[in-house]
Amino acid sequence: MRWLITGARGFVGTHLVDYLMEIPAVESIWGIDRSPKPVAKRYATALRMHSAGLQDVNALCRCISEIQPTHIVHLAAQSSVAASWKAPIDCFLNNTNIFLNLVEAVRLTQCPSTILSVGSSEEYGPRTAEEIPLKESLFPSPTNPYAVARVSQELLSRVYADSYGLSIICTRSFNHVGPNQPDHYVASSFCKQAVEVLLGRREMITAGNLDIVRDFIDVRDVVRAYVLLLTHGQSGSLYNVCSGQGTQLSQLVEMICKLAAVVGRWEIDPERVRPADNPIIVGDNSRLVTLGFKPRYSLVQSLSDQIATWKQTLATS
Fold this sequence. Notes:
Elements: E1 2-6, H1 11-20, E2 28-33, E3 47-51, H2 57-67, E4 71-74, H3 81-86, H4 88-109, E5 114-120, H5 145-162, E6 167-173, E7 175-177, H6 186-198, E8 205-207, E9 213-214, E10 216-218, H7 219-232, E11 238-241, E12 247-248, H8 249-259, E13 266-268, E14 280-281, H9 286-289, H10 299-315
Parallel strand pairs: 1-2, 1-4, 2-3, 4-5, 5-6, 6-11, 7-10, 8-13, 9-14
Antiparallel strand pairs: 9-12
Helix pairs in contact: 1-7, 2-4, 4-5, 6-8, 6-10
């Protein structure tokens, strides 16, 4: 198996590379970067970087032709809902175009790859209580620029699978949590702030709307699910990647405060409240479970590991 990962240096990408390095059947792991830099030392013998820009179809064609990947995981994206509100045009054009360029390059080169199109639970939009947990059969109803781009990506996947015969599997992936997550994501932001309170660098954890409910899944379980889908999933199908459990953000903050030993040190910041927030996003993962998937990490373990990495990072900064 030859794996090609867009966004291989990112949060999910590095965890995916870590997991693939443990699989004997994986022959090679490739990443794409417009200006490849040396990879981290632990990946020096495992991850190879190919020089190509995702906005350049010709460069992508050369990349696909050279590597001849059997499996492609498309992770590269602007993946922050908050950032999409600040720059909606950039978010939509970037996320839609780079995926379109990738599948077009696979089509033009006639490379027999199976592609994982990673989407988002944000595609579902607000739902009634009767529709929770969210099933893949629900028609998307996006309410933010990031989610609109993800729906477009999913529709493009369907076009290229149905009309061009490409092997594409789609996900609607729910909120990730785990070690080394950037702090513009809610769980990581709370963990970082909690450690800063512990170190005396701030007085309080500041948060936005804590009434909303989200389905959190550890990034290490996410990458296991992605490999399972690319090796045992059905082409043309859509799968929720989630834990199936909902956690209110107020509970999340309290859990993090307890784990970091800064109990009760949080407050609401109105400026952190988004223009529109889905009140509850909890997924049905039964379609993924039928393939043999079972999460290994509890939310407490995920948050504990996330706090530990922030302690290590902030202690030296």
